[in-house]
Amino acid sequence: MATIKDVAKRAGVGVGTVSRVIAGSGPVSAEAASRVRRAIEELRFRPSHAARVLQKGQSQTIGVFVPLVHGAFYTPILHAIYTTLRAYGRHMVVDFGQTLESERQDALDGAEFLTDRGCDGLIVMGTALKPADIEHIAELQPKFVLLNRCAPHFRAQCFAPDHHAAGAAAARALWEAGHRRFAVIEGPKSSLDNQQRMRGFLGTLAEHGIDPEGVPREQGDFSPESGRTAAQALLARARTFTALFCANDEMAIGALAGVREAGLTVPGDLSVMGYDGIDLTALTVPPLTTVLIPWRQIATCALHHLLNLCYGMSLPVERDIPAQVLWRESVARLS
């Protein structure tokens, strides 16, 4: 593989001249530049990533950390980031966490890894980071945005849905559909966004006279299998509820299987509602009613803000992007 020194030798110029031609800046005669370009073509030379960083002071890459690599939730978010970056001639480097339990340390390690790779800016997704952790990320790379996390001292860099309002919207929708007896499959108690949507959901039920302490609850880990087993556990305890709210769609998909295995039908015997609005919810049997969180739009706006910071662009940025209930056949209207 040809090196920059090979190009300089073939063109009869110094290495510095080759660097200036590649960077497109600095004094180089037209004749010398022509020889360098001809040598690059003849040798099929491609400047290394490190060389481009040294020449331009930027890598033209954005680092992205997401907590997990599996499941149907993160892929559309990554795709939205990728397609936007490619539209503006940039690339991304992605790092993944291992488990929800290790999310906090994984995010810190990921931020260091991506910074060490010369990324011009960082997108860090996750709710487990503490204020001191965010301060540390800001020291590593001042040009960063947080997805699904709000931090008082970094409000401009935070892009997150209003989970409390979205949880409240789910409760109102079920109430308006005539349901009065509820059960819940919540996510991990350590998950901040799970706490927020549960407070919104249960708080709204309380406004309608439903005691939150009397609502049967099971905890899952956001996976389909945990939703299946949680639904079966709830049905084994009592079958008095008519509506089951799940803290994410993947658990709701598992709950549909658990209800079916218990010999019940959805929505004939029990209504099921999810949360997030992942694409798979349109393909379940029956199609799943869910709270649609505009994750693609939120991620794109976060990226626009970061591109504006990194490259002086003027891309549009929205911050108040509300959730909405996406009605499908898994919820019966009792009134």
Structural class: alpha/beta
The total strand number stands at 11
Share of residues in strands? 5-15%
Overall pLDDT confidence: 92
What is the straight-line distance between the termini?
73 Å
CATH topology of the largest domain: Rossmann fold
User: What is the count of DSSP helices, taking H or I runs of 4+ residues?
Assistant: 12
- The CATH homologous superfamily of the largest domain corresponds to Response regulator
Helix fraction by DSSP (H/I, runs of at least 4): 40-55%
Give an account of the 3D structure.
- The chain has 335 residues and is α/β, with parallel strands linked by helices.
- Helix content is 45%, strand content 14%.
- The protein has three domains: 4-56, Orthogonal Bundle (434 Repressor (Amino-terminal Domain)), CATH 1.10.260.40; 61-160, Response regulator (Rossmann fold, 3-Layer(aba) Sandwich); 163-293, 3-Layer(aba) Sandwich (Rossmann fold), CATH 3.40.50.
- The protein is built from twelve helices and eleven strands.
- The strands form two sheets. A six-stranded mixed β-sheet has the order 7-6-8-9-10-11, with helices on both faces.
- Helix 9 links the parallel strand 6 (182-186) and strand 7.
- Helix 1 packs across helix 3 (30-43), helix 6 runs parallel beside helix 7 and helix 10 (224-237) packs across helix 11.
- The longest helix has 17 residues, at 295-311.
- The radius of gyration is 26 Å and the shape is elongated.
What is the element layout, followed by pairings?
Elements: H1 4-11, H2 15-23, H3 30-43, H4 49-56, E1 61-66, H5 74-87, E2 91-96, H6 103-116, E3 121-125, H7 131-140, E4 144-147, E5 158-159, H8 163-176, E6 182-186, H9 192-207, E7 217-219, H10 224-237, E8 243-246, H11 249-261, E9 271-276, E10 289-292, H12 295-311, E11 324-326
Parallel strand pairs: 1-2, 1-3, 3-4, 4-5, 6-7, 6-8, 8-9, 9-10
Antiparallel strand pairs: 10-11
Helix pairs in contact: 1-2, 1-3, 5-12, 6-7, 8-9, 10-11
